[in-house]
Q: What sequence folds into this?
């Protein structure tokens, strides 16, 4: 018999908290089964900037899932912020939304594996790398066929 208790998912995100990749994943999960989401924004240095990120992301996440999403601000250490939230709450899994590998401090510090070691399933969501305008130009330029001598 299926439980009527909704899944509880902790979303850990900062700069990627309102990316289409994350929004699509939470929407997919919400449609798949009843899920309650909580957004944790760690690495907060400026409370004013964090409030903007948190409120903007919460509104977009709420629109994606069609329900309320709680929001929490964490400290400067992402792992310790996640550990503390997990210690004081009941969650079934964690989504870590992070920058692409080349730019992600969380991936360099192996945040997903460290969180998994706490005994909870982790899904990593990474938006596609945006090519620089120079790289786009170079790719377009190199794709052109050279003129033939006539």
A:
């Amino acid at each position: 018999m299926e439980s009527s208790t909704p899944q509880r998912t902790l979303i850990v995100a900062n700069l990627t908290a309102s990316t289409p990749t994350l929004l699509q994943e939470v929407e997919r999960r919400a449609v798949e089964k009843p899920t309650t989401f909580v957004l944790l924004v760690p690495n907060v240095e400026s409370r004013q900037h964090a409030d903007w990120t948190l409120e903007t992301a919460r509104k977009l996440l709420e629109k994606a899932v069609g329900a309320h999403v709680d929001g929490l601000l964490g400290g400067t250490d992402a792992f310790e912020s996640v550990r503390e939230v997990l210690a004081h709450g009941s969650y079934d899994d964690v989504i870590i939304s992070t920058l692409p590998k080349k730019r992600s401090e969380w991936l360099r510090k192996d945040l997903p594996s460290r969180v998994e070691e706490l005994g909870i399933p982790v899904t990593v969501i990474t938006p596609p790398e945006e090519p620089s305008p120079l790289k786009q130009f170079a790719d377009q330029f190199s794709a052109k066929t050279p003129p033939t001598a006539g």
Summary: The first strand starts at residue 7 and ends at 12. Residues 47-65 form the longest helix (19 residues). The chain has six helices and five strands. The mean pLDDT is 85.
